[in-house]
């Protein structure tokens, strides 16, 4: 059975994404690397939510050893598109982990979110896969976004109110910020 590393951005996007790739015949492993989530307490709340969810599914979790917030700020500083740099940083980490540990490929739960920049994500996924000599598995799951939410609805899992970074939090609170 081919093995697939699924970068998970949050439990609510990951629930259906993991199910989908399992249904496609992959042995899936969840991968957590999201230093874009601020502050650290928020990062921990989202991490605990996915850990709780995964405990009930039998899907293993691979985690980056550190929070790596410096890398987020270095990656996005001066960038023309903060979100693009943020995607690049996270997909690069997933591709590196897949390559180093012999997975057949990687993907990301970000592909299910209508709130993310799908075309940019796809382009970056293909680019980093090429560089790391692993395959990027693509599926446009945006029409299943509500199905994913439905899968976690009955569970008392933490639900975030903003994308992740302080900029997105500020925007959610009514401030103006460009991505
Ligand atoms: S809004 Fe912030 S956390 Fe979300 S993708 Fe863009 S840079 Fe990353």
From TrEMBL:
<keyword id="KW-0560">Oxidoreductase</keyword>
<dbReference type="GO" id="GO:0046872">
    <property type="term" value="F:metal ion binding"/>
</dbReference>
<dbReference type="GO" id="GO:0008616">
    <property type="term" value="P:tRNA queuosine(34) biosynthetic process"/>
</dbReference>
<keyword id="KW-0671">Queuosine biosynthesis</keyword>
<dbReference type="InterPro" id="IPR014729">
    <property type="entry name" value="Rossmann-like_a/b/a_fold"/>
</dbReference>
<comment type="function">
    <text>Catalyzes the conversion of epoxyqueuosine (oQ) to queuosine (Q), which is a hypermodified base found in the wobble positions of tRNA(Asp), tRNA(Asn), tRNA(His) and tRNA(Tyr).</text>
</comment>
<keyword id="KW-0408">Iron</keyword>
<feature type="binding site">
    <location>
        <position position="9"/>
    </location>
    <ligand>
        <name>[4Fe-4S] cluster</name>
    </ligand>
</feature>
<feature type="binding site">
    <location>
        <position position="83"/>
    </location>
    <ligand>
        <name>[4Fe-4S] cluster</name>
    </ligand>
</feature>
<comment type="similarity">
    <text>Belongs to the QueH family.</text>
</comment>
<keyword id="KW-0676">Redox-active center</keyword>
<keyword id="KW-0004">4Fe-4S</keyword>
<keyword id="KW-1015">Disulfide bond</keyword>
<keyword id="KW-0411">Iron-sulfur</keyword>
<dbReference type="InterPro" id="IPR003828">
    <property type="entry name" value="QueH"/>
</dbReference>
<keyword id="KW-0479">Metal-binding</keyword>
<feature type="disulfide bond" description="Redox-active">
    <location>
        <begin position="163"/>
        <end position="165"/>
    </location>
</feature>
<dbReference type="Pfam" id="PF02677">
    <property type="entry name" value="QueH"/>
</dbReference>
<comment type="pathway">
    <text>tRNA modification; tRNA-queuosine biosynthesis.</text>
</comment>
<dbReference type="GO" id="GO:0051539">
    <property type="term" value="F:4 iron, 4 sulfur cluster binding"/>
</dbReference>
<dbReference type="GO" id="GO:0052693">
    <property type="term" value="F:epoxyqueuosine reductase activity"/>
</dbReference>
<protein>
    <recommendedName>
        <fullName>Epoxyqueuosine reductase QueH</fullName>
        <ecNumber>1.17.99.6</ecNumber>
    </recommendedName>
</protein>
<feature type="binding site">
    <location>
        <position position="10"/>
    </location>
    <ligand>
        <name>[4Fe-4S] cluster</name>
    </ligand>
</feature>
<keyword id="KW-0819">tRNA processing</keyword>
<feature type="binding site">
    <location>
        <position position="86"/>
    </location>
    <ligand>
        <name>[4Fe-4S] cluster</name>
    </ligand>
</feature>
């Amino acid at each position: 059975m081919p093995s697939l590393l699924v970068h998970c951005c949050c439990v609510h996007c990951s629930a259906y994404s993991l199910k989908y790739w399992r249904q496609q015949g992959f042995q899936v492993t969840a991968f957590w690397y999201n230093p874009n989530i601020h502050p650290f307490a928020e990062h921990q709340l989202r991490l605990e939510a996915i850990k709780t969810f995964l405990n009930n599914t039998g899907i293993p979790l691979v985690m980056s050893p550190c929070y790596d917030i410096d890398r987020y700020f270095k990656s996005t500083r001066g960038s023309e598109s903060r979100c693009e740099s943020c995607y690049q940083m996270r997909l690069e980490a997933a591709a590196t982990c897949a390559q180093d540990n012999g997975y057949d490929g990687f993907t990301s739960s970000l592909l299910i979110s209508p709130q993310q920049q799908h075309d940019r994500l796809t382009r970056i996924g293909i680019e980093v896969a090429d560089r790391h000599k692993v395959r990027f598995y693509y599926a446009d799951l945006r029409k299943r976004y509500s199905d994913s939410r439905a899968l976690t609805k009955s569970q008392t899992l933490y639900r975030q109110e903003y994308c992740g970074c302080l900029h997105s939090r500020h925007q959610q609170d009514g401030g103006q910020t460009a991505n």
